[in-house]
Design brief:
The complex is a heterodimer of chains A (308) and B (786). By secondary structure, chain A is an alpha/beta fold. In chain A, 34% of the residues lie in helices and 22% in strands. Chain A contains twelve helices and 13 strands. In chain A, the strands form three sheets. A nine-stranded mixed beta sheet of chain A has the order 7-1-2-8-9-10-11-12-13. In chain A, α7 packs parallel to α9 and α10 packs across α12. With 786 residues, chain B is an alpha/beta fold. In chain B, 50% of the residues lie in helices and 9% in strands. Chain B is built from 31 helices and 17 strands. In chain B, a hairpin with a 4-residue loop joins β15 and β16. The longest helix of chain B has 35 residues. Chain B starts with a helix and ends with a strand. Classes of the chains: A alpha/beta (308), B alpha/beta (786).
């Protein structure tokens, strides 16, 4: 049943989460695609930013057994007083260290997969999708960064009658987006900041294309949920909330917005990846701020819910 | 909660558990005088009657449902005929740090003088232990199994709806009728049956005397009562006690009091495991509720108040104290009364009703230790019931537990019950399946499955003591394949199970002969018709269960050996055994490899789950279908209560990377921290076991509170439960609490006295648990939302 094409198309992902209950309706499995065109300073999945797979080492876990040093065919590793030292110039990403470490101190930031392998994982929770009306959500990173793979997985899910949601930042060629939309049942579309300059400043890209893409999806009759991440200092000023409200309420047939309050939970991830956390000073919104945002958005005739 | 319930609740919550020697004194005096004058059943019935005639009564201020097992709330009688506590035991009970019981020094002296000398050498516990063969003792002392009946009587008794239509006078008529039909010409047991029936008749009288005394006390109290409202209540209580249990109840109030007198009777007569339970209380009460609402004599608030009064009454009945191994396997004040809600009626229709919802409100408001509610969800149960249940679960009390009606019925059909009896059945204790009102389903003790594997890996020897506790099943170094190991394990298992069964069968006869329970027999079908005692095969169904513990630990250990010793062949068996013997000292890398690089149960990974199924089937084949002494059969069920902690302490390091003496996995749950793919994967793994072959399994799940924050989250939890049940799951229960809260409760127990957590098939106050149990709960995998 698996075509040659399905096997041939590979994708890179960095996580599969089961019992995902905040990524679309009901009980779902969420697949996290690796690579993102944006670099939001509040990103809570920094391991999904780069498209390539890396190895990260957590020396707190290392028990100093030396198994990885022995296994590494590129001779990139050595035991040091602080744990394992990696010579990045030698490392060929052969992943021997990841495979042998008993303590899981070496971790790959993702893995390559193909459609049959991914489908086998996604089908495991089929009884839950069927019972609850849930399904699968493709998130990331940005799933549209790997459109060929995404398309094939969506088709395979379609054949299996599994509900498909795509969680996107919307920064992708419109044609690609519309082609994907033909094989998706729902889009979870992030609307981060209405002012393009601010969008550029906080995410690395302007927002014109994103806003156009929302309109294009609405035109094409795609089921869509708009998700507004609430991040104090970034997008919770009244002007932005009002602009968001005006924009969303003007989209025919949408009428609803999901608020996702910033949780501030990724600090340890940045540390493990050896990355600087650009959002280190961000804080979650307070209860008052959340209520105020909701009240303003309601003025635009929108149904507002928290989570999603 | 209205004022009355608030006050009664507080009194019950604050009362300190204590011991009463009154029952022991009455019983001892009576036995001294009367042993030998009557048949044993009649002696037991007369003893029960004597207690009902003489025991101190209690009617508390503001109470509507009346009667206590001891002289006051949370004051527990002792049962020296089963276990005669020594002076040292009593001091231990008084002074031990956890689950202690107050007792006055003068009572200890009186016990020493009047009770102990008579029962020494005569108690059931001493007689059992004096009979057990040395091989049994060696295995028992090694922690291969426990023995339930050394301190408490067999029990697990639940009522059906009979007592709501049949009073004691009706039962007496039935007994008289049955005596009249005894066939002395052809039935060699006719004389024995006559004695049993005579005893049941006396026991019914005893229960009526007990009620009449309460009526008299209430009347006396009413006479001197100055508050006219309370005076009227006391007069009403007197009228209720004059009517039930002699006659069937006519009102909601009488129905509750009827149950309560029967409950008290059975737990006063003997000290059966898991107290007594009313079964499907919502179904039983509903007709009285409807009638009361229709004629205007009852409103919803009054019904709720009366149900609350019953709840407080059950909470007042602290579990009788346990010592030794039995205290370690279930150290709690909880006596395990479980009340079933929902389920189906005898025609298979959804049976949830307004009382189900009233009871869910009551348990959520009262937050008491016991009784604990369970909600029975079948394919035709409404989502409203599931959501109301999830709403209470969210509050983090650890209850209600949720059971799968359809599988519970299937289990009973497999075990030979009729469809109608199966539908009227349900679960009691923790998760045990039984036909309510018609079955003696006796739990006999826990089986330490990982320990059996440990002994197998040491060719019959316990590596912790060097003693031979099993049989020689082959030197593991000689095993050529994983199958060789599995076969050796199966042989070792068979040996241990047979040791246990032999002694169980002896104990069954001991209880049948020396400790009949005539009152209990009178209220369980078909003891009267059979003219036989509850313990002697009198009931319509008679099951003997062995409870298997540690499936997760055993599976993961075998999986580790299969993966690393046989499949990948990188780890020599000798090296593994040496590391286990040294508790992985200087072998942390190996331990981590086993822990991190082995397929474990609870991840929806067939590599591990197939091993779980294999162990499960081996247990089933070894236990199920063995004859007990009642002409019926042994079955298995899979729960551990808190025994996985005791068993863990008796277990060295295991091949799954678990260090020595830490808890083993509980019930049928995955090992702590071994389930790494979330709750759907856990449920899928559990769904691969053919649970219909058991008398119950137990799945603990711990969720962080944010997983149940929104209304949708509650719906999703409901769907998770429904999916598990579609996959054939028997039971699931949840702790909704974060680690931070539990740590704070350890630091400042005085601020967290109300914090209920799910321990095993029941909830307990976190601060009442000892350190081991607290840590065990903290180390359960906390499922987060993705």
């Amino acid at each position: 049943m698996h075509s040659g094409l399905m096997n041939a198309v590979k994708g890179t992902i960095f996580a599969i989460k089961r019992y995902a209950i905040h990524d679309g309706p009901s009980i779902r499995t969420t697949v996290f695609f690796k690579g993102c065109p944006l670099s939001c300073i509040w990103c809570h999945n920094p391991e999904g930013l780069k498209p390539s797979i890396e190895v990260v080492t957590d020396n707190d876990r290392c028990v100093g057994c030396g198994a990885c040093v022995e296994a590494c065919s590129a001779l990139a590793l050595s035991l040091s007083p602080d744990g394992i030292a990696r010579d990045e110039t030698r490392c060929t990403l052969g992943m021997e260290c990841v495979r042998v470490c008993p303590a899981l101190a070496h971790e790959a930031t993702g893995w390559e997969t193909d459609v049959p392998a991914l489908m086998a994982e996604l089908m495991k929770d089929r009884p839950f999708y069927e019972q609850s009306g849930g399904g699968v959500t493709f998130s990331g990173g940005e799933p549209l960064q790997q459109p060929a793979f995404l398309l094939e997985v969506l088709k395979a899910c379609g054949k299996g009658h599994i509900h498909r949601a795509v969680d996107t930042c919307g920064h992708a060629p419109t044609d690609t987006l519309l082609e994907i939309a033909e094989h998706a049942d729902l889009f979870l579309f992030d609307l981060k900041q209405m002012d393009s300059d601010a969008h550029q400043r906080f995410t690395g890209v302007p927002n014109e294309r994103i806003l156009q893409n929302i309109a294009a999806l609405v035109d094409a009759g795609t089921a869509l949920r708009i998700r507004f991440p609430l991040i104090p200092g970034i997008n919770t000023d009244e002007a932005n909330i009002r602009a968001t409200g005006a924009f969303v309420s003007a989209l025919p047939g949408v009428g609803e917005i999901d608020l996702l309050p910033y949780q501030g939970a990724a600090k340890s991830k940045y540390a493990r990846l050896g990355m600087e956390n650009p959002g280190a000073k961000l804080v979650p919104p307070g209860a008052e701020e959340k209520t105020r945002t909701m009240e303003i958005l309601k003025e635009y005739g929108l149904r507002v819910r928290f989570g999603g | 909660m209205n004022n009355r319930i608030q006050r009664l609740r507080k009194e019950s919550f604050d009362a300190k558990p204590s011991l009463s020697i009154e029952r022991a004194l009455i019983e001892t005096e009576f036995y001294r005088e009367n042993l030998g004058k009557h048949s044993l059943p009649v002696l037991r019935a007369l003893t029960f009657k004597e207690i009902c005639q003489r025991k101190t009564l209690y009617i508390g201020d503001g109470e509507l449902i009346v009667g206590e097992r001891g002289p006051s709330p949370k004051c527990v009688p002792t049962f020296p005929e089963l276990t005669c506590h020594s002076v040292e035991d009593l001091h231990t009970l008084k002074n031990r740090p956890m689950t202690n019981y107050d007792i006055a020094e003068e009572d200890i002296l009186a016990y020493e003088e009047k009770v102990i000398p008579y029962w020494q050498g005569r108690s059931m516990r001493e007689r059992i232990f004096s009979h057990t063969p040395p091989e049994w003792k060696a295995a028992y002392e090694a922690g291969l199994f426990t023995e339930f009946m050394e301190q408490r009587a067999p029990g697990h008794t639940v009522l059906d709806g009979t007592i709501y239509t049949t009073g004691m006078l009706d039962l007496k008529n039935k007994i008289t009728d049955r005596i009249g039909r005894l066939d002395y010409l052809n039935d060699p047991e006719a004389a024995d049956r006559a004695e049993q029936l005579k005893a049941m008749d006396i026991a019914c009288d005893a229960a009526m005397i007990f009620a009449q005394r309460h009526a008299e006390l209430a009347e006396t109290m009413a006479e001197s009562e100055t508050d006219p409202e309370r005076k009227a209540e006391l007069e009403h209580i007197a009228a209720v006690c004059r009517h039930v249990p002699a006659n069937p109840p006519r009102t909601f109030h009488e129905a509750l009091q009827m149950y309560w007198f029967v409950h008290l009777g059975t737990v006063t007569e003997l000290n059966g495991w898991d107290s007594m339970s009313p079964g499907h209380l919502d179904q039983h009460l509903h007709p009285f509720y409807e009638a009361g609402m229709a004629d205007g004599s009852l409103d919803r608030d009054q019904a709720k108040e009366l149900v609350s009064c019953l709840w407080i009454k059950v909470n007042n009945q602290t579990a009788p104290p346990k010592v030794g191994v039995t205290a370690r396997e279930s150290g709690t004040y909880n006596d395990f009364s479980q009340i079933n809600l929902g389920g189906v009626d005898v025609d298979g229709n959804d049976a949830s009703n307004e009382i189900s919802y009233i009871i869910l409100e009551v348990v959520d408001e009262l937050r008491l230790l016991q009784p604990q509610p369970s909600v029975h969800i079948g394919k035709n149960s409404p989502d409203r019931l599931l959501k109301a249940t999830a709403r209470v679960i969210r509050n983090g009390l650890g209850y209600p537990a949720v059971f799968n009606t359809d599988i519970v019925i299937a289990e009973m059909l497999r075990a030979g019950k009729t469809l109608a009896d199966a539908r009227e059945g349900g679960t009691s204790g923790c998760i045990e399946t039984g036909a309510f009102g018609k079955e003696a389903y006796i739990l006999t003790g826990y089986l330490n499955v990982p320990k059996i594997l440990e002994v197998t890996l040491n060719n019959g020897t316990d590596p912790l003591t060097g003693k031979k506790v099993g049989i020689e099943t082959g030197d593991p170094l000689e095993f050529q394949s994983f199958d060789d190991l599995c076969q050796a394990f199966a042989k070792q298992l068979e040996y241990v199970v047979e040791l246990k069964v032999k002694v169980n069968n002896y104990i069954e006869r001991m209880y049948a002969k020396h400790s009949p329970a005539p009152f209990l027999s009178a209220v369980i079908h078909d003891c009267i018709e059979n003219g036989k005692d509850y313990y002697d095969g009198g009931p319509r169904y008679n099951t003997t269960y062995i409870q298997c513990c540690g499936l997760g630990t055993a599976t993961d250990s075998l999986s580790a050996i299969k993966t690393h010793v046989f499949d990948e062949a990188g780890l020599p068996m000798g090296e593994l055994l040496k590391a286990l013997g040294n508790n992985f000292e200087s072998e942390e890398a190996l331990r981590l490899k086993l822990w991190n690089r082995t397929p474990f149960f609870g991840n929806d990974d067939d590599h591990a789950d197939e091993i779980a199924v294999r162990i499960f089937e081996t247990l089933f084949e070894t236990i199920d279908g063995r004859p007990n002494t009642k002409g019926t059969l042994y079955h298995m069920n899979m729960l551990s209560t808190t025994c996985h902690i005791y068993f863990g302490k008796m277990l060295g390091a295991t091949p799954n990377g678990r260090l020595a003496f830490l808890p083993e996995s509980d019930g049928t749950s995955p090992s702590h921290g071994a389930d790494r793919n979330g709750p759907t994967a856990v449920v899928k793994s559990l769904g691969k076991l053919d649970q219909t072959k058991t008398g119950g399994t137990l799945l603990n799940q711990r969720f962080l509170p944010d997983v149940l924050a929104s209304e949708q989250d509650l719906d999703n939890l409901g769907q998770l439960i429904r999916t598990y049940f579609h996959l054939g799951g028997h039971h699931i229960q949840f702790n909704i609490v974060d680690t931070d809260t539990l740590r704070k409760a350890q630091e400042k127990p005085e601020e967290y006295r109300n914090l209920l957590v799910r321990v095993a098939g029941y909830s307990d106050y976190f601060t009442d648990l000892d350190q081991d149990h607290q840590e065990e709960i903290i180390h359960r995998t906390a499922q987060q939302s993705a």
